[in-house]
Amino acid sequence: MTVSAIPPELPEQFAAEQVSIHGHRVCYRRGGAGPVLLLLHGIGDSSRTWIPAMRLLQRGYTVLAPDLPGHGSSSSPLGDYSLGSHASSMRDLLDLLGIERVTVVGHSFGGGVAMQFAYQFPGRCERLVLVDSGGLGREVTWILRLATVPAAEYVMPALFPVFMGRWGDWVGRFLGDWGIRNARAAEMWRSYRSLTDPGNRAAFVRTARAVIDPGGQSVTAVSRLYLVALIPMLIVWGGQDKIIPLVHARQAHQAVPGSRLEVIEGAGHAPQMEDPARFAATLQDFLSSTEPFRFDPEEMRALLRRNSAAS
């Protein structure tokens, strides 16, 4: 199956659908047919980040991209925005849709959710794909660290006023009419635009504080990476990522024997948006050349025992 680029001017596909989970709206986009790819976006983003890649991947796979709680068009309830809570929400979504097993693909914060999903529900995870993932080291951009300082939520309304969202949308349409498009700028604008909504803004702060403190990322999966050593694992990173450094990818690759690392040169923090053709081709090659993981409780217990004995 050949992957080719699709012009960005095509009409948007994958209309948003929704379900209610524990009384709260969870929206998602899906398409295609075949083995299921669960596509998890980053903090302040939404399922829209996956649309360029979904257009390519739907030819051989079912692509499922939810808006995580507090993001996109999903509800922003008060409560738990930890990685574990998000992983459980994704389990519940799969149950409602009648999906048993997935290859879970996580970008940025979504990478942390993907790792947590694999850890909590290994029987439902066929493969693990991390895209410029959080949770692999302390370093992260100062912009996200600022969101975790005390009283940040009281300053953000002035930084992300509602009128800026409407004005920016108009500018985007104007530039688009003139054929001026930039995937990296569009990704940054979507994140900014989402924070002009008060509910999304509050959820963003709670989500950020669940994994980041003023010094950097406060939650790490490094000590548990050995638990995913049995799961086929692909790490994809933008060579020009200024949000989370490339060294995190190299360290994770070294920590998980048998994992694959693909650096997409020229791309920043969102290679699935900036170079969807190469991203989709890389993912497709990984999927076609690996066998789905089958969970064996005895193997997991053996891993835990070996790690305990070595400590």
List keywords for this structure.
42% helix; alpha/beta; Rossmann fold; eight-stranded mixed β-sheet; 12 helices; disordered N terminus; 311 residues
Query: What does the largest sheet look like?
Result: 8 strands, mixed
| CATH fold assignment of the domain at 17-140 and 218-310 | Rossmann fold
- What Rg, in angstroms, do the CA atoms define? 19 Å
| Biggest sheet, spatial arrangement of strands | 1-2-4-3-5-6-9-10
* CATH H-level homologous superfamily name of the domain at 17-140 and 218-310: Alpha/Beta hydrolase fold, catalytic domain
User: Class by helix and strand content?
Assistant: alpha/beta
Distance between the termini: 46 Å
Task: Kindly describe this structure.
The protein has 311 residues and is an alpha/beta fold. The chain contains twelve helices and ten strands. The termini are far apart. It has helices spanning 51-57, 83-97, 109-120, 142-146, 152-159, 162-177, 183-194, 198-211, 246-255, 271-274, 276-288, 297-310, and strands spanning 17-21, 24-32, 36-40, 62-66, 102-107, 125-131, 212-213, 216-217, 233-238, 260-264. The chain has a domain at 17-140 and 218-310: 3-Layer(aba) Sandwich (Rossmann fold). α2 crosses α3 and α6 (162-177) packs antiparallel against α7. β7 (212-213) and β8 (216-217) form a beta hairpin. It has an eight-stranded mixed beta sheet with strand order 1-2-4-3-5-6-9-10, sandwiched between helices. The chain has a two-stranded antiparallel ribbon with strand order 7-8.
At a glance:
By secondary structure, this protein is α/β, with parallel strands linked by helices.
